[in-house]
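Hi Y.,

Following your request, here is the sequence exactly as I used it, all 122 residues.
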Amino acid sequence: MAGADVTLNGRSQATVDAAVKKLAAEAPGAKVRGIAADVSTADGCKALVAAVPDTDILINNTGIYGAKDFFEISDEDWTRIFETNVLSGVRLSRAYMKGMLKRDWGRIVFISSESALNIPTE
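Below is the corresponding structure, written out as tokens. Let me know if you'd prefer a different format.
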């Protein structure tokens, strides 16, 4: 971790706490904390940014997928997928990038799924 303070985010406090505990055990002495906030929503992004107002490195790794026939995916499903997979990263990048530009340093990383290489067949 090279001296970094790490904040993990997840939708539920229980999963966040478990992830923090696991990472802290794997990297003794690391500064790790967790924030439960559903970043698939505007309010969830605001809550995360309120709890962590600045960051030097943002890793966007939020995404959902459901195995459904294309013709069976409703507009509501598409909206939920877009909010989660796209807008969460846009909102968080918008919130943190200004500080990165002001400090003249920062990184924003988007991690996709392995589905680009391992295409689901269901």
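The mean pLDDT is 91.

Thanks again,
Q.
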